Amino acid sequence: MAPTLEKVSSNKHYQGTLTKYKFRSAALGDLDAQFNLFLPANAAQGKVPVLVYLAGLTCTEDNGAQKGGFVRDASAEGIAILFPDTSPRGANIEGEDVDWDFGSGAGFYLNATSPKWSKHYNMLDHVTQELPQVIEAAGIPIDFSRQSIFGHSMGGHGALTLYLTSLISGVKQYRSCSAFSPICEPSAVPWGTKAFAGYLAGGVDEGKENHDASVLVGRVKGGVNVLIDYGTADNFLFQLHPEVFLKAARDAGHDEVQVRVRSQEGYDHSYYFISTFASDHVHFHANFLKA
Amino acid sequence: MAPTLEKVSSNKHYQGTLTKYKFRSAALGDLDAQFNLFLPANAAQGKVPVLVYLAGLTCTEDNGAQKGGFVRDASAEGIAILFPDTSPRGANIEGEDVDWDFGSGAGFYLNATSPKWSKHYNMLDHVTQELPQVIEAAGIPIDFSRQSIFGHSMGGHGALTLYLTSLISGVKQYRSCSAFSPICEPSAVPWGTKAFAGYLAGGVDEGKENHDASVLVGRVKGGVNVLIDYGTADNFLFQLHPEVFLKAARDAGHDEVQVRVRSQEGYDHSYYFISTFASDHVHFHANFLKA
C-alpha cells in the first residue's frame, strides 16, 4: 500500500500550484521525506508531463522551487516540476552531519551499498521509483510516461546518471536530460570520490562503473538528448570536468545535436547562473515532453 | 566625502551583474549597511534607469534578488534594480531583536523621531537620499533622474509612502510606484501601529499624518502612476487594507488609469505570488522609466 501524502504547504504560483508534501519513505528506510511539486493550471484538464529537478550539495527540495526560475516557462508550457530533496534526513548515522559534501544534503542520487549507509541512502530508488509511485497512487494528474530530468552540480550528476542508466537498461524512463554545472566525472574529483568511497562497498571503482556519467555515456546504444551549461567563472569547475563528458560523448558517436555542452562566459556556480538559463532548459525539455 | 563601497560579492546574472555592496552608512548612524544592485549589460554603454525594490518584514537585501523573479525582465528592458536592506543592522538598541515585526528587519522605511530609535532607524533617508548619493559617487552608471519604486508588504508601504511623499513635496523622485500586498493603511492595523508607536515620538498620530499611504494619496496634486496586486488567499489581508487605499485614491480623483488595484484570486503573501506578477510590474515601470 502506498504511503499517505501529507500536504505541508500549498502556494498558488504562475496560475498553478506549488505544493510541499511529506510522506514516510520506504526507499529511504522508513524516514519522513519531503518534496515540492509544481502542477500547472492545465492539470485540471488532464494528466501533464513532468520535469524532475535534482538540486545540488547542501540544498533541499526548496532551492530549485524558490530560486531556479523554472516555473514561469513550465507553467506556460503546461509541464509539472518535481523537486525532490537531496538526501535522507534524520537517519542518525554517525558522521552524517559532519561535512557539507557528504551525508545529509549530499545523497548523490545513488543507492548506497556500504552497510553503514545502505538502509537509508537510496536516493536513486527514491527519485526513479518511489516518488512516481507515491504521486500516482495519490491520484495527482501527472503522466510519468512523459518524464524528463535535469539538475544542478551534484543534481546534474544525478540527472545525467539516472538518465543514462535508464537508457542503457532499456527502461527509457526519461525523454531528455539537462544539467547546470554538473559533476560530469565524479570518480575523478574530490566531491565524487568522497561520496563513492563512503556510500559504496566497492568504493570509487564501483562508483566509476555504475555512477559516472562520463563512463555511462559510452555505453548507450542509440540516441541521447542532453543539454549542459556551465559557467567559465565557476569556482568549482575542477569538480565538474564537462570537457571529459563531452569527449566521451563524441567518442561514443553522440553529435552536437544529441549532446550540447555550452560554456557560458563569466557565469558562476550559483542560482543566479541557473535562473539565467532556466528558460532555455525548460523549453529544451518541452520539445521532447510534448512531442 | 562619500563613503567607500566595498564589493561583498558579484554574480553574473541575465547577461548583467548582481553585486552586493557594503558601506558605512551615515543615515543609519554610522553602521555597516548592505544592498544588492543589478546592473543590466547595457549599462556598459551608458547610464540606465533604476527600479528600487523594498522588501517586507524579516527580509534583507537578498530576498527580492533571489526570489522576486524581477531580473529577467529588467535585463530585457535594460533597467537596473536596487535592493536595499529592510532596517539598520546591529544598532544594539534594547528590544531591537525581540520581535520579528519591529526593530531589525522591520524599519518601515521612515525616519524615526523617538529618541531611542532616531539615531539609527532612518531607512527613509537611507533609501531616498543616501543610496543614490553613494552609488553616484562610486561612478556606477545609473541615471537617478529615471527612478521608480516598488515593494512587498512593509516594502509596499514604503514604496507607496516614499512615492506619494515625493509627489506631494514636488520633488517627484520616482516616476511610478507599484506594490505587492502592501500595508496600505498602517495607522489602522497591528503591524503599522506597533511600528509608529515605537519609532515615532508622536506615535500613531504622527504616523497617520506622515507615513500612511491612504492618507497621503488624498494630498497629491496632479496625476499618479500606481499599480497594486494582492492575493485573495493572503493570510495577512487584515494588515493590508487595499480597499481603503483604493477608495481614498478614487475619492481624491485618481481614476483606474492612475491607480490600479488588482485582486488576484487564490494567491497568498509569499514570493510565489510576487514572482508570478513580477513581469507585469517590471513592464509597468519600464513604460515610465523609458518614456
UniProtKB/TrEMBL annotation, chains A, B:
Pfam family of the protein (one): Esterase
Gene3D superfamilies: alpha/beta hydrolase
Domain of life the protein comes from: Eukaryota
Keywords: Cytoplasm, Hydrolase, Serine esterase
Main localisation: cytoplasm
EC number(s) on file: 3.1.2.12
Enzyme class, broadest EC rank: hydrolase
Keyword Cell membrane: no
GO MF annotations, alphabetized: carboxylic ester hydrolase activity; S-formylglutathione hydrolase activity
GO cellular component: cytosol
GO terms under biological process: formaldehyde catabolic process
Subcellular location: Cytoplasm
Catalytic activity: S-formylglutathione + H2O = formate + glutathione + H(+)
Active-site residue numbers: 153, 234, 269
SUPFAM superfamilies for this protein: alpha/beta-Hydrolases (SSF53474)
Family (UniProt): Belongs to the esterase D family.
NCBIfam families hit by this protein: fghA_ester_D
Job of this protein: Serine hydrolase involved in the detoxification of formaldehyde.
Protein name: S-formylglutathione hydrolase
